[in-house]
């Protein structure tokens, strides 16, 4: 302590007394004495307050710990953070529905782009999982599948037979057009974003790039204008008068007359579906197991999702950028839970919380999976087409995508198509999850998709699972008549 500091505790005490007994001291001294007396008292008060607050905090903490561990199951709610694990796994659930109520979906943390974490997927082996982007939350796991597994999956798909992923003519468009109760003027006004009384090509394409299943480019649009003689001055701009000539019927008739090439479709591939449950080929069951370990979600959610989709692209094949899942609107119903929705709505969409994409071969040329806006600072729908460069067009503009994953045999990538709702459940669609398959320039490309379907509407997911487990119970009862106890395998819903 220095001399200056020396005028502390003991001196303060005397000065306090002097200050109260001798009020005639000079003002400056009086102030200084008064100050130190207050200091000493307030010091004591502050210390005591802190001490009490500290004690109260410790007591509150002890109570919290006590009550939380005491009523572990009862106090769990999906409002609490998940801690990265499905919380229904410990503690006996009171009923099947109740156990689901307490599920908080694990979400793997990306930390930062390039971050590598070790994951244990098969006994005695550690896989490395690298973060490729945070928006969307996207990971890559090399050697997820062995060479043999890739071969078996491709062979099983061939054995089953692959169908065209997209049929040439899509029905239902006219129906939608009829339902749309808007006049040509109103549509024109809505499309004319710049409000200059003209429809630029990109204004039409930003609204919708797909017409009757056909991918529209600025060139195709110009061709259609010319064919239907709507753009009289051939400047690529449509006035309201010109737009009126572009009726739905004329549009469709022109496209049909001209004939459509596969390369003009949204998607140019073949695919099939493989079930992975009991009785499936061991390789498919092993992959199921590994996926469950990878994404750390309850097995039930995986088992109630779509089967494994195996896709084959020939040379020249592609899949323009898209979302695997639809946006969350109040009137939207998920395809997988529509049984439980008991509403009739025209808005039905796939609700695929996670996409796990496996590369079954290494492609000789092209065929990358492109994420055009991954980790963009902002998402700007209008900026997806600029100067007639359409970032969603994977036949032309993959090289302008923010991120491209090269297909390497055995590698898996996975990403979240939805954000979290902040309470352990599925939230809004992640707009950054936009992706597509770039055109295959050499050879063929084989991939498989494992989608994990979860309804963003929590109650509906619960109802759906209850419905399915009820059905399975009924089936089990029927089976009881023919099977004895030992012969009954564990059904996939026992962990509901
Ligand atoms: C898909 C898909 C990407 C790819 O099948 O939904 O986006 O690289 N595939 O094939
Ligand atoms: Ca305009
Ligand atoms: Fe996709």
Polypeptide structure, described:
- α2 (9-21) crosses α3 (27-70).
- The strands form 7 sheets. A 9-stranded antiparallel beta sheet has the order 1-2-3-19-13-24-9-8-4, covered by helices on one side. A 5-stranded antiparallel beta sheet has the order 7-10-22-15-18, with no helix packed on it.
- The protein is built from 16 helices and 24 strands.
- The model is unreliable at 1-36, 68-98 and 482-496 (pLDDT under 50).
- Helices cover 36% and strands 19% of the residues.
- With 496 residues, it is an alpha+beta fold.
- Residues 192, 194, 196, 198-200, 203 line the site of calcium ion.
Instruction: Give the total of beta strands.
Output: 24
**Structural class computed from helices and strand pairing:** alpha+beta
Proportion of beta-strand residues: 15-25%
The proportion of residues forming helix, as a percent range, comes to 25-40%
The set of bound ligands, ions and cofactors reads: N-oxalylglycine, calcium ion, fe (ii) ion
Overall average pLDDT: 81
Kindly provide the radius of gyration, computed on alpha-carbon positions and rounded to a whole number of angstroms: 32 Å
User: Which outline best applies?
Assistant: globular
Query: Ends: how far apart?
Result: 68 Å
| Total of helices | 16
Largest sheet: number of strands, sense, barrel closure: 9 strands, antiparallel
Unreliably modeled segments: 1-36, 68-98, 482-496
State the strand order across the main sheet.
1-2-3-19-13-24-9-8-4
């Amino acid at each position: 302590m220095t001399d200056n500091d020396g005028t502390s505790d003991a001196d303060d005490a005397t000065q306090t007394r002097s200050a109260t007994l001798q009020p005639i001291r000079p003002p400056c001294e009086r102030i200084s004495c008064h100050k130190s007396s207050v200091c000493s008292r307030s010091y004591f008060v502050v210390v005591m307050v802190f001490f009490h607050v500290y004690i109260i905090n410790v007591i509150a903490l002890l109570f919290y710990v006590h009550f939380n561990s005491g009523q572990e199951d009862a106090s769990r709610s999906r409002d609490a953070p998940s801690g990265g694990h499905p919380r229904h796994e410990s503690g006996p659930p009171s009923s099947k529905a109740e156990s689901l109520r307490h599920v908080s979906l694990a979400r793997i943390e990306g930390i930062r782009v390039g971050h590598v974490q070790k994951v244990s997927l098969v006994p005695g082996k550690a896989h490395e999982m690298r973060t490729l982007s945070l928006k969307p939350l996207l990971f890559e796991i090399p050697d997820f599948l062995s060479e043999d597994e890739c071969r078996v999956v491709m062979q099983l798909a061939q054995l089953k037979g692959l169908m065209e992923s997209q049929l040439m003519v899509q029905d239902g468009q006219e129906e939608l057009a009829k339902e749309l109760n808007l006049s040509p003027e109103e549509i024109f006004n809505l499309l004319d974003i710049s409000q200059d009384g003209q429809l630029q090509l990109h204004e039409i394409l930003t609204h919708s790039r797909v017409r009757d299943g056909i991918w529209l480019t600025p060139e195709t649009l110009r061709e259609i204008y010319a064919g239907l003689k709507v753009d009289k001055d051939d400047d690529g701009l449509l006035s309201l008068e010109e737009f009126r000539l572009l009726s739905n019927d004329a549009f469709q008739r022109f496209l049909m007359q001209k004939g459509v090439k596969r390369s003009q479709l949204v998607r140019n591939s073949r695919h099939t579906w493989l079930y992975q449950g009991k009785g499936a080929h061991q390789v498919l069951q092993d992959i199921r197991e590994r996926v469950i370990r990878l994404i750390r979600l309850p097995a039930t959610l995986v088992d109630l999702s779509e089967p494994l989709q195996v896709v084959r692209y020939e040379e020249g094949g592609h899949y323009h950028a898209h979302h695997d899942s639809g946006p969350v609107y109040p009137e939207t119903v998920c395809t997988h839970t529509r049984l439980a929705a008991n509403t009739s709505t025209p808005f039905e969409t796939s609700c695929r919380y996670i996409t796990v994409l496996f590369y079954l071969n290494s492609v000789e040329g092209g065929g990358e999976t492109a994420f055009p806006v991954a980790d963009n600072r902002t998402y700007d729908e209008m900026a997806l087409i600029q100067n007639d460069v359409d970032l969603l067009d994977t036949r032309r503009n993959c090289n302008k995508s923010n991120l491209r994953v090269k297909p390497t045999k055995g590698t898996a990538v996975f990403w979240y198509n939805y954000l979290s709702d902040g309470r352990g459940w599925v939230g809004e669609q992640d707009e950054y999850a936009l992706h597509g398959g770039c055109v295959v320039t050499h050879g063929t490309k084989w991939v498989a998709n494992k989608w994990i379907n979860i309804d963003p509407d929590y109650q509906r997911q619960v109802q759906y699972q209850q419905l399915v487990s009820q059905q399975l119970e009924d089936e089990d009862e029927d089976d009881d008549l023919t099977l004895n106890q030992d012969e009954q395998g564990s059904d996939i819903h026992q962990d509901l």
